[in-house]
Amino acid sequence: MSLKHRVLIVMPAFNEQESIAGVIAEVRQHLPEAGCLVVDDGSTDATVDVARRAGATVASLPFNLGVGGAMRFGFMFALERGYDVVVQIDSDGQHNPADVPRLLAELDSADIVIGARFAGEGDYVARGPRRWAMSLLSATLSRTARTRLTDTTSGFKASGPRAVRFFSVHYPAEYLGDTIESLTLAARAGLVVRQVPVAMRERAGGVPSHDPVKSAIYLARAGIALVFAHTRSAASFRSAMS
Q1: Do 112 and 186 contact (CB within 8 A), yes or no?
Q2: I need a surface site. Which of 1, 18, 43, 131 has the fewest CB within 10 A?
Q3: Most distant CA pair in the chain: distance in Å?
Q4: Average pLDDT of the chain to the nearest whole number
């Protein structure tokens, strides 16, 4: 990715006071020229104060919208402030900012690059029905995107200039709409999706937002969202690319 592009790191955050300062410090270390926006998603702890003291720009949503709502705000913020590349990183420390340059390099031939956990790097494991559902969703979306994707529920992604413009208008704001539905809409609009293998780390602190029951519900909703995304006319959102 050319240095002429302005890169914004967007970190959705919900009650991540224990980990967020460390992630911001890593972003500053590995991506000193990038902007860093924390979208506080209605936290009730000290996430906002900790993030500001760590040097990030912080935007606070009035209540918890979920990752989809937070990222939609992030894309609108990026377009308004002149950033043409957005990288989504979780605030819990599981995504390694040192991997971001590899995602950015792949943007030379793609519009969206996924940091994939199941592509041969790292030891992240998902088992049972959750793994089966994730595999089915990835196989279905691979057909839509016309490339092999192994981890379409990953929240670690880089979006290039065309994708930033598209997502600033068409982004599912529902809970965790940042994964299956957003990728499906982008692929149907003609955006090129690729992946690079990454290793997932342990959470640096806080409590996961997904327990097994929530994960099962989410994957079921993701499947429904996938069906509805395919029912929409591609022409209805391709106008955003012109």
Answers
A1: yes
A2: 131
A3: 45
A4: 86
Q: Collapsing DSSP states into helix, strand and coil, what is residue 17?
A: coil
Are 107 and 146 a contacting pair, CB within 8 Å?
no
Q: Would you say 82 and 4 are in contact if contact means Cβ atoms under 8 Å apart?
A: no
- What span, in angstroms and rounded, lies between the C-alpha atoms of 242 and 236? 12
pLDDT for res 134: 76
Q: Which amino acid is at 16?
A: E
Q: How are beta strands 112-116 and 157-159 bridged, if at all?
A: antiparallel
Residue 9 pLDDT: 98
Q: Is 133 helix (H, G, I), strand (E, B) or coil?
A: helix
| Helix, strand, or coil (residue 184) | helix
Is the pLDDT reported for residue 242 higher than 90? no
| 202 CB-contact burial (10 Å; exposed 0-12 / middle 13-18 / buried 19+) | exposed
Taking the alpha carbons of 85, 115, 208, 122 in that order, is the dihedral positive or negative? negative
Express each pLDDT in 128-177 by its tens digit: 667 777 788 888 889 888 999 998 889 999 999 999 999 999 888 766 66
Instruction: Write out the two tokens for 29.
Output: 């270390």
Pairing of strands 157-159, 85-88: antiparallel
